[in-house]
UniProtKB/TrEMBL annotation:
Its main location: membrane. Keywords: Membrane, Signal, Transmembrane, Transmembrane helix. It is a multi-pass membrane protein. Pfam families: L_HMGIC_fpl (PF10242). The keyword Transferase does not apply. One of its GO terms (cellular component) is membrane. Residues 1-21 form the signal peptide. This is LHFPL tetraspan subfamily member 6 protein. It comes from the Eukaryota. It comes from Anguilla anguilla (European freshwater eel). It is found in: Membrane.
Length: 200
């Protein structure tokens, strides 16, 4: 099977896919911030939440509905910082996924990825990882929202967790972006084969 990648390029393609998958899974999962409310576990992502209070009209009380879902609208996301984080991280994950899929196709198609295209792909990966890193840095700014404060014993604030803790999805998203930025962008420089010179 013909390939447009060097041996280093094949490692780059596989690692790019792993990094993109880690960041995308972490971004989609609502386990960035973990806490509890009314003795029920509650978790938040940037645009999703698990367990939320609803009014029980029959018993005239508030009960916790233990389900996961996204907010009903973009404006329903608890804070402006989380809305920005959702957009920035989503675009970054999209860029990483685009490069990873292109790299995997390059394993099977000859003359798809040259040295120059490999370096350009590395640049796109760097930008994508930078966007995801920016989203992860913005996320703690939303910890002062009312929803988060209710879950964190009313003691959370920007960069102050209160009784809550950071979940595995936050680390997964950040680790995927960090590996893409530090390792994949470097490997991309050596990923493509030198193009043959054809005499005309």
């Amino acid at each position: 099977m013909a390939s447009s990648l060097t041996c280093t390029g094949i490692v780059w393609a596989l690692l790019s896919f792993v990094c993109a998958a880690a960041s995308c899974v972490g971004f989609f999962m609502p386990y960035w911030l973990l806490g509890s409310q009314m003795d029920k576990p509650v978790s938040f992502g940037t645009f999703r939440r698990c367990s939320y209070p609803v009014r029980d009209e029959v018993r005239q009380t508030t009960v916790m509905l233990e389900q996961c879902g996204r907010y009903a609208s973009f404006q329903g996301i608890p804070s402006l910082e989380w809305r920005i984080c959702t957009v920035v991280t989503g675009v970054g994950c999209g860029l990483l996924l685009l490069v990873a899929l292109t790299a995997l196709i390059g394993c099977c198609v000859s003359d798809l990825i040259s040295r120059a295209i490999g370096r350009a792909a590395g640049g796109i990966q760097f930008v994508g990882a930078l966007l995801i890193g920016s989203g992860c840095a913005l996320y703690p700014l939303g910890w002062d929202s009312e929803e988060v404060r209710q879950t964190c014993s009313n003691s959370s604030d920007q960069f102050e967790l209160g009784s809550c803790e950071i979940g595995w999805a936050y680390y997964c998203t950040g680790a995927g972006a960090l590996a893409a930025m530090l390792v994949c962008t470097w490997l991309a420089c050596f990923a493509g084969k030198k193009q043959k010179q054809y005499p005309y």
